[in-house]
Amino acid sequence: MDTTTTAPLGLRELKKQETRQLISDQATRLFIAQGFEETTIAEIADAARVAKKTVTNYFARKEDLALDHQAAFVASLADAVTSRPAGESAYAALRRAFGSAVAAQDPVAGFAGPEFTRMIANSPTLTVCLRSLHDQREQALAAALAETVGAEPDDIAVRTAAGLLGTVHRILFQRIQELTLAGLPNAEIAGIVAEEGNRAFDVLAPSLGDYPTT
């Protein structure tokens, strides 16, 4: 029997997490109401009832306040590859993980709701930041694929495979955003994107369906 338990957080750490979440929540509320570019750090600090320095201690950049799940997003494709069961190709693992994310209407996959999605679309800064996160996610995927096949991270075959697989996820993420901004509810979006996702992955199946299985 597995007797492993997770140690409870100390009061100090718990307080820090609560403060971080409070700042993030207040920042998001203001960004949606006023616009990202128009909202200042001072306004966020006032709304969260903390010092301006506290905000910058928790969030190094203003963009981090709006996109505070960056690490999970960047690592998502690589994690799907590294955690896949033996014998399953990276392609199959990524396709399966995408299907699960759509079924769960996961915000990391793009199901962020109309207000949040519109906030990003209306902000040049956040649009550029999101594009950079897609690039970082593809790079992390390339590193995971390289480790899987025993190649260097700059191996052209690995980079090409990561680029193609990353592009499918990028396009489908953008599709979810488009449908969200068009006013469709998440449940309907999930149904549409599940079918479109299958068609998109089918395009890559002939060349990447078995890559790599080792």
Give me the secondary-structure topology.
Elements lengths: L10 H24 L6 H8 L3 H7 L3 H5 L3 H13 L7 H15 L9 H8 L2 H26 L6 H26 L4 H23 L6
Helix pairs in contact: 1-2, 2-3, 5-6, 5-8, 6-10, 8-9, 9-10
Structural descriptors:
mainly alpha; Arc Repressor Mutant, subunit A; Tetracycline Repressor, domain 2; 2 domains; 10 helices; globular; disordered N terminus; TetR family transcriptional regulator; Homeodomain-like_sf
Overview of the molecule:
The chain has 214 residues and is mainly alpha-helical. The chain folds into two domains: 53 residues, Arc Repressor Mutant, subunit A (Orthogonal Bundle), CATH 1.10.10; 139 residues, Tetracycline Repressor, domain 2, CATH 1.10.357.10. It contains ten helices and no strands. It is globular and about 55 Å long. The N terminus is likely disordered. InterPro entries: Homeodomain-like_sf, HTH-type_TetR-like_transc_reg, HTH_TetR.
